[in-house]
Amino acid sequence: MGSTLLFGLLVKNKNIFLSQIVGGVVGSAYLGLTKVYTNEFLFGSVTTFPTFVGDHASNFINSMIGLIISLVVSTVITFIVARRDKN
């Protein structure tokens, strides 16, 4: 499903693809500023959230906040770009 979405929607619409990248950068910047760490080396996805559980509860909470920031930023930028392209 993920590859279908990537090639079917994002590659055709480069502006939407760039908005997703910007959302990821903003969320990642938050994770870096709050020094979120994982217990293992892995590629992030929804199924890897347990690796953010550590000694401090703030690590997991900040990782969830970073996810929400990425989601909101990319959604807002995508909405603005899609609306502009429609007009």
Quick summary:
This protein is mainly alpha-helical and 87 residues long. The chain has one domain. It has three helices and no strands.
Strands, helices and their partners?
Elements: H1 2-10, H2 14-33, H3 57-86
Describe the structure in your own words.
Helix 2 (14-33) runs antiparallel to helix 3 (57-86). The two termini are 30 Å apart. The chain is built from three helices and no strands. It has one domain. The longest helix is centred in the last third of the chain and has 30 residues, at 57-86. The model has no long low-confidence stretch (mean pLDDT 82). It is mainly alpha-helical and 87 residues long.
Radius of gyration over alpha carbons?
15 Å
Distance linking N and C termini: 30 Å
Catalogue the unreliable spans. Answer: none
User: Strand fraction band?
Assistant: under 5%
| Count of structural domains | 1
- SSE series: HHH
Q: What number is the mean pLDDT?
A: 82
The main pleated sheet reads as: none
Pick out its properties.
mainly alpha; 87 residues; 0% strand; elongated
